[in-house]
Amino acid sequence: MITITKASAEDYAEIHQMILDFATFQKTPEKVSITLEDMKANIDDFKSLIIRDGEQAVGFATYYFGFSSWSGRHLFLDDLYLETDYRRQGLGERIMDTLETIANDHKCKSMRWLVSKWNDPAIAFYKKRGAEIDQTELTCMLKLS
């Protein structure tokens, strides 16, 4: 039976491994710098869902809350990952429904996330849910020491 629950610190080792797997899928494993210790040290900020098939972890979604000067409070979906064998089975819909419920419970005005330009299946999935894909802005990041 597939379950989707809020993750606890006990789930972090499995989530960390899936983060590494996801980065490999994205062809950017060198970009992962977070450690299991970082995740545990930031337990108040590290919000995650874990997807299990019985006892086996098969996916995760990480998110956080933000505030936009233009539109107010939002839930930002940082990562959504399912192992290959669990894709195209309706689990993405269930995960997004769960995140929408969390966003509504926290009085968010919107949900936001990034999607890789090359990931056509994900883009189609998000559009099917009614998401607007904005081509106007570029993602910027300044690494701090």
TrEMBL record:
InterPro entries: Acyl_CoA_acyltransferase (IPR016181), Diverse_Substrate_AcTransf (IPR051016), GNAT_dom (IPR000182). This is N-acetyltransferase domain-containing protein. Transmembrane segments: none annotated. Belongs to the acetyltransferase family. It holds the Pfam family Acetyltransf_1. Keywords: Acyltransferase, Transferase. It comes from the Bacteria. Residues 2-145 form the N-acetyltransferase domain. PROSITE patterns: GNAT. CDD domains: NAT_SF. The keyword Acyltransferase applies. One of its GO terms (molecular function) is N-acetyltransferase activity. The keyword Acyltransferase applies.
